[in-house]
Protein 1
Amino acid sequence: MPHPDTTTPGLSLDEAQARALFARAQEACRDAEIEVTLAATVSELTRFANNTIHQNVAEQHVSLSVRTQTADGRMARATTNRIDPDGIRAVVARAGELSRLQQPDPEALPMAAPQTIVPVPRFFPATAAFSPADRAAVVGEIVREADRHHFTTAGIVANQQNALAIFNSRGLQAFHRETSAEYSITMLADDSSGWAKGNAPDVSSLAPVAAARRAAEKARLSAAPVELAPGRYTVILEPAAVLDLMGFLFYDFGGLSVLDQRSFLTGRTRTKLFGDNITIHDDVAHPLQSGAPFDGEGVPRRVATLVEAGTVRDLVYARQTAARMQREHPDLQATPTGHGFPLPNEYGEAPGNIVVQGGTSSLDAMIAGTERGILVTRLWYIREVDPFKKILTGMTRDGTFLVEDGKLRCGVRNFRFNQSMVEMLNQVDALGVSERTSGEESFDMVVPPMRVRDFNFTEVTRF
Amino acid sequence: MRELAGWALDAAMGSGAGYADVRVLSERHRSLSTKNGKVGHVGDEESVGLGIRVLRDGAWGFAATDRLDRESIQRTAAHALSIARASRTVCRTPVVLAPEAAHQAVWHGPCDVDPFSIPVDENVGLLLEVDAVLRGVAGVTLAEADLDFRRQHQVFLSSQGSDIEQTRHLSGGGYAALCFAGDEIQKRSYPNSFGGQFQLAGYELIARLQLLANARRVAEEAVALSRALQCPQQVGTLILDSSQLGLQIHESIGHPIELDRVLGMEANFAGTSFLTLDQLRRLRYGSELVNVVADGRLEHGPGLGTLAFDDEGVPAQCTDIIRGGEFVGYIHSRETAAMVGESRSNGCMRAESWNRIPLIRMTNISILPGKQELSPEELIASTDDGVYMETNRSWSIDDKRFNFQFGCELGWEIKHGKRTRMLKNPSYSGITTEFWNLMDAICSRAHWTLWGTPNCGKGQPQQTMGTGHGAAPARFRNVRIGTAYQS
């Protein structure tokens, strides 16, 4: 039963308001092209630990960000959250002043022309209206689940409304609004723990209490963990663990990253780098995805096939990167894909709506088909050790199990890994069905569970 | 700003809060970067808003807004109270705050030269000069440089009578040269990785960093690394430069001593801590040379954790954390201090901005320098066989802060008291208390630097905070070296 709350603020930006604010900014801009990015957020989060709500917060804000650009390509950005007439005039003046102090940039393109953007409906009133009392009710049910097992629980239940608008003086108009709801639940037993997380635009599609049961079951099954020697193991990675690793790949798929020779794909585009069973798309319109259907310049996001049957196929490009790539590597036939960051920036672009193609297996089938291996629920504190070999280090966390003879045998102490992603994606021998997944180390994606041979665990910790 | 804060406080207390505090914060941020001879970005951002934190019937509520008219502020206060009512429905033990006197103060942090008074073209000019020197070294494939400046002006009012106004200027800058050579990418950064050095200071910091003077050496090291020997796997003697030791402190001392982690409040995200309450004044954390303090006072230096009062209105203090190797202290909030029977918080509650609640955060967590005069050169000269490592490249530690692994940008083999061959891809790993007990030398005060870590993440919603870490080069025996490349 919902608990309406009249004190909860509404989202303070609709398309008409955004257009009016842009008009005011444009009036104040006399001698340059102007682009205005407006972002509004209402965000609420209830946090619990030790079976108690211990933090409970709400924030609302709006920002108005102005990019001005002169005819010779000098540009700068100024941002404010003062959206009254004086605040707008001041931020436009500041952006203009900063622009004029820059050097001319002959490579800068004029601002984007008007675009056709296919909307993706991701705003759910029920999520927007989810109140502090609604969140507390969910937390109460999670706590009851913990109490049933004599566990302690910690986590969050949160909901958010966002609006994003980009307008420019060439007539481009882009507007998107969406909601998101999220839970993350840790169940703690004496010497073990379990975890589950979910995120979706529609709060009614989430099942946090069922997730609390799964987390509790993991904590129960991993009690009294045994210590195994580090070494190469077959691992079964749950989707959250796959997401956390995969997230470290995708900045390297930006065209500018390759041009700058900071990407592990430098000299490796259009080559077979991974196993035949690895296919990855970027697709903002995928039904399990979230986010705006346009990039930081208002250019619509196109579907990109990043990896096809193990071969690196497409990079993604902001407009300026595509133009440069056409000049320097015409064989790649680069065109803008709608993945650029807001300008000016030094990083170019990156895909952000990753869909990793799944297979026909399942977690249960992978466990049943494994003679000896490790089941990993979640990874933690992943960092890049080597940018070209793409070696990542990190820890397992909150539910790490020994699998023997097709069954979960027991919990094990957490491992540290040092694993090359290039090597790992050649050693995937089973893929489950892809699902919308949330982790803590990367952005949300659509990924499957994976079984990987010879995963490199190098150390064991004390719990 | 005081008037806005007063409206908010009156509205919260008038609506039935048992306790309330309000922060109104106005922040200005300028950031600039260059890359390969061109401007990367130039940005200027301002933000002003207020956050209202209330306790009602022993349960917390917080609401923040950037709509600063009276009606919106009153609505935000009402929302904070509504949230606190919801919190009360799943609350086992009412919150109690450790006592704190009411304080009235106006404080300005150190700033000799207002960074916002420096023309942007002068900022960009400096970065482009550095960039030209970096790219003047054959083999450098990417040069990046940046500057970053913030001014934070905050008014804090509490229902217990505190009225505190603070202004802090934060400045930072640095650069990196990268070398892509066939099948590897090597990088050297100056004066530190991940953006350089950051302090509570004005533009005078940038002059002190001697950015131009070091650019050629740094670029040459990046290129030399691509031809250097791979750091071997071994158990041996390790010497860390002060910046890497600063990050080692951050991860393996600074986070474990946060009492909210210890008490399970961060279990879902940042994790917990091996420093359970029974370890206090019992655990031998390190060797007798290990003396660590949490010190937010200006006397400690202009660190990113230097302040006059924290965001609960508690004055900055110096707390012994490790004394002669013994673990003796945590960092607190008023709430956690009361939970463990401390008479007072030691002033470590800090919020990222006006729209976030304060959390227990490191101030300046620093290892004290050695009492005996010892320079880095003398430290190396007294080492027969080992590896010297400089400037962090990767960092990772488990969620209870036992097992860590760090990679550095540059290593040197040490043989018979001399630096001999350059080593690429150096790394080391260990268990926190085992590692700190292996420390057998630390350089003296003249070689101690207060480093700024600008990117510490914690909390849900996540907050990024700047922390300070004073450190001097130090030596550790019998350390696992080269583990990151173990195959």
Protein 2
Amino acid sequence: MKKNIWILDDDESINEVIKIILEDAGFNAKIFSDATSLKKQLKKKSPDLILLDIILSGQSGVAVANELKSSEQTKNIPIILMSANPDLKAVSKQAKVESYISKPFDINYLVKQINKVLTTH
Amino acid sequence: MKAVHNDKLYAKLHKEISVRKSAQEALKHSTERFETILKNVADGITVQDRSGKIVYVNDVGAKMCGFDSAVQMQKASINAFKAAIDKFELFDQNENKISLESLPGRQALAGEYPTPTTVLYRNKIDGSRRWSLIKARPVFDKHNKVEYAVIIFTDITETKELEKQKSQFISKISHEIKTPLTTIEAFMQLLERHTRASKDIPSKKIVVKVNLQLSKLNQLVDSLLDISRINSKSFALKTETFNIYTLIDYCIRDIKLLYPKSIIKNQCKKQLLVIADTQSISWVVFNLLTNAVKFGRNKEIVVKSEIHNNKAIISVKDKGIGIPSSEQANVFERFYRNISDLHQTFPGLGLGLYIASEILKMQGEKISFISKENVGSTFSFTVTLAKNI
């Protein structure tokens, strides 16, 4: 069974490239460019993992993570935060997410990190 | 006889009086001239006597202290003076609250020569903020006791504001560049993966070249981000114990990937445990090595270590173009670039040594160099030894 990974980033091209990388690595990847559409979809389905960018045009990625982690229905979905922010590690710790990936990233590292989170959760 | 004597006496007296008069006039003239100069300088100036009483202030200085003019300030009662000063809250460079006692004027009154200090004045009533650079010097009497302290206030609010805007601009621009860069890098990695199995050799070579340029571009953007973080003092340091010999070896290995022709020898002590922020020290070593390669005319580069008290001194020596003595004072400035060899242009923004010196300064370490044009340069920095070696 292919694992379902959802990606939320407001940059279209990064969404596109991550989708290719993840599909190449054998995942089902679904992209969202805003938090509202992702949350709407979450009411119907639940992914195996969410890749979340910190800087979004509407609600910030950290706020989205906090919201998902405080809801009974979504708190068990592992989240990986992504950002070019040098303080990403501290931000991720505060947001209580499972992991983080600094941008720009190595594509092998991205896949490795996703697999690691999926096996431990 | 008597009359003659009186005449002579009168003439002598007259001469003496007129000499004294012209001396007084000259003094008055010189004092007036001096006061006009002091009045019209853009800096605030105050002179305090040994008891701390203000004996001179110019208009700018009085305005900085919250008075309308120098005359009003000098006439003010002690209570009025206190009330005017109390209107302000004082902060240091990093916006930590400081007391009036810690200002350079007090140190000058104690006979010291304080270093110029940047102070932020916040008006408690209207919340307005002004930055000031305060310099103070003691004036000694003939018994070598402090007679006065001369204090000069330069308003640097605009400079500070511009610095902040510049920092924010650099940070914003760098983030904006990072976003497409991330995508390009990821796509290039995918392309590299797809061409790996192909027999299209020219395409493979192109992919490698594009990747190399991308990593250079990334480094540039990272340097810009580092600068804005240094300027905004949000550079996070994590101190730990590590073997700097190994760290230097790793840096040399990375440099050799970028510059395969470089010859670099690590002659440091093989077990040299130091305590510092690994990432930033690695950044410093990498930058010193990059400079040594760039300006080293393909000659051998040697990294050495020395131990002095509780510090390790790491030096990177090249035999390259060197830095002309006329330029040496600017080496650690932002955007400084070595242009001594006009036949060659060197890539870079001129930020490496500035960042290196700033991140070392933050850790209480120092960087210095000796250099001779056409002979070469040696850059050295200190790093604290771990206690248990």
Protein 3
Amino acid sequence: MKNFTKVLALALMVAFVFASCAKVPTQAIDAAKAAIESVVAAKGDIYAKDELKMLNDDMTAANDEVTAQSKKFFKKFGKAKEMLAKLVTDADSIKALIPARIEEAKNAALQAQTEAKAAVDEAKALLEKAPKGKGTKADIEAMKADLAGIEASFAEVQTAIDGQDYFGAKDKAAAVKEKAVAISDQVKAAIEKVKGR
Amino acid sequence: MRYRSVVLFLLAAYLTGCKTPPVPPEVERASVQEPQLWRAGASLYAPREYEEYIENIKQTRQAFEKENLKLGWFRRYDLLQDRLRKAVDSGDAILARIRKEKEERAGRIKVETAALKKRLFTLREITLSLNEWGQGRQRLAQAEVMLNEAGLMAGQAKYDQADSKLRNVRDVIKEAEGVCLRLLVRYSDQSQINVWRRMADETVAESKAKGITAIVVSKLEKKMVIYKGGRAVAEFEIGLGFNGLSDKLHSGDDATPEGRYQITKKHPSSRFYKALLINYPNEEDKRRFAAAKQKREIPYWVGIGGMVEIHGGGEDSLTRGCISVDDKVMDELFRIVDIGTPVTIVGTLDREGSIFKAIKDE
């Protein structure tokens, strides 16, 4: 009986030690959260959307694991810690991808800006040499006003680039180019109209 | 003996088919579907349903994990399969709903874009007929660029951004409409229109009384009506000056004068085909000019101007204040008018004319 009491006491002590030693991995959770935030801060929500979603899912899974273990008497946070550590590593790898993607978006925006500028310049040059005779004066004056309007829009491309809104800048540049090309076509048509007389 | 029993039991279990059941195909479907839903923007389009779906998937996954902890023989996926199938089916329903909603949004954006394009076209035509090449026309060009942008955004399924851009387009169009309407302030003033109507009526009455030809020019409508014996017999389109809608006050203002004039000279050979000179400035013009000079509204060195003609060269041309018509019309006019033929130039005879309607027409 005495022996049984001793064994029971020892077992309870061991169980207590095991149960209390397994603490919630707060530090690892905080580190994982910080890693995700650093990805967001590096514009991961724009340039690594899918990967960020994956990280958030992993974080949810790790939290679920922590919650599940917390409810148990014999808590084992080893798996959760592994998940959280992997998440931090993954976050670092994703963060490392972002600068290249930003650079890629920036280059695409700059390329679109160059193309838009070329289209605006072409329209300008055509307008300069357009025959300002009877029958075309009004059209040419109107197209000059159109060009002034799209030059104002073109300036917004640079504003978007300066604000690092590269996708927005690319769209705006493409839209400016479309309108500039339309003006060039109108000028060419006006020139043809005069030639045809 | 005990060892043999265990082996026999395992062998029997194996032979009777008690082995690890296959993982249901819904597990794979769910793993593909979940990111699909996220990418499709389920949290925006169907937030409540998506949340429910995620919770179901999560719970079912946990149940599977629990089931996987069991020995292969004791795993019962069939109980969970039904639950998972329902969750996956709800995911499919959400996806279908999102696709439908997106198609509807894209359709709405397309319709609105087409309507705004039409409106821009109308307003561009109006700026042409008003000779408005300032803020109004520029804003319209900017609106067109924005409309192009909205199209690009819609093409990338960025419907919120496209909607917001279309709202901006409408605002910019409103600004352009405002510019056009400001140009037409005089043309919506009823007392001014009454003055113009009286002048036109007097001219028509004179044509009737004397049985002569008379010309009435309406600047806003860019129209010239020929009267004979008080009856309208012909109507022609005209072109005006750079600043044609303003009433001419002095030399170099590029405005077309308003008032009652007469043909004073017929030029059979002019720089612009043929020309009919009118007697601008008349007495009223001289009085207005003198008053403006006195008020120092005009610099002292600027003269009143003159040599205002009806000439050829095309009705779509721009003049420095003259009225231009097609050469064929000029031939006709040359044939029917004489020195002394009354020419009355008015702003408009119609307060709610077509241009006003077109500007205000949404």
Protein 4
Amino acid sequence: MEEKKQKKKRGGIIGFFKDFTYGMATHGMARHALKTRSSMEHLFILITMGDMLGIPILPPYYSLRLLPHVVPQITTWKRRMLREKDFVDSMY
Amino acid sequence: MALADIFDKYPDRRYIMYGGKGGLGKTTFSAATAYYLAKKGKRVLVFSVDPQASLSDIFERDIFGQGNIEIVPNLFACEVDADRRVQDYQEEIRQKIISMYGMKKIPEEIESYIKASSAEPAMEESAIFDAVVDIVVKGDFDYYIYDLVPLGHALYYLSMASIYDAWLDKITGLREQMREYDQAIATMQRDEETEEDQIYNELLYIKERIGESSKIMTDTKKTAFFFVLTPEEMTIVDTEKAAGLFANYNVPLAGYVVNRVINRDLLNENIPEYLRNRIEMQANALEMIDDKFGDTVHSRVPEFDSEIKGLNVIKELAEVMFEEKLS
């Protein structure tokens, strides 16, 4: 532990600036990418294992019967499913 | 009990099915049973959903996708073209969308969803069973003989049906709650009436169809499911397993019919070793069959010296199967 801290400290001034620029420029992007990645992960699980959440995956033969009735909502539904909502979002 | 007695004793059993491994004679027995019943003055429809069109072969007539074709008086045969049914159905959905929203063209993502749906394996099964419901619901025949494709298919559908049924209940419940909200909102806004929920109606329809289609196979009053087997140890073991699986899904087993039994009298003649061995093997297997299935074996059909094809041979087979001379 002690040794590790020592190593980090040895970064000195240059290390500080490195960390600083990372924080300014990349951190936000990385965070965003991670979030997107995890939401894609969630979407994937939703598609493959929807039943776990009680989301019915109707046999395609019969779900087609429902399709005409939801056509106008498909776009908004997709947008909504892909949008994340947590308290952090509301801070911006 | 003889096969003919079974039919006499249970006249309510109007959905007849022969199940078993591929190539054991399901189609042959379906055709022969249809022939026998038709000769007895019943209106019979024998139908198949197998894309490999074996009824066409056995009746020596191309009937694939052509509706109910009369083969002999009272005997009708039908081969459902599942692919075309799926396509027609998809087209129907497209037309519905176009007319509901006055669109000129189906939006791309909707179109690709419709297209992709036909690639799903469950799609064809559902389409087939839906077609069967259409055929049976009309009710214009005394007997419906369902020439099943090999076992897995039917079992897969039955297990699907019970799962679908459970979540249909769930979503229908959800839809009902949504309806209550709609009504509450309507009251607050002082609207007289809420619009009818079409999705809810569709769900009820789907539930009814799925229930109907599994009922055809599981109705203890109306369904008779026979297993076809041959006197070979492996077939017997497989059949026993399959019978257990079907019993789990409450398919009413009406008994067993043994096919391809070689005449034992041949042993008294000068026959090659090969045939002698086969007859001995069959004797052992037949003993095993008696042991396991006892008096639920309703008929033993001999091995024919020609392929079962054409009405003359079907008649001959029906006569030995039902132990009765037919006009």
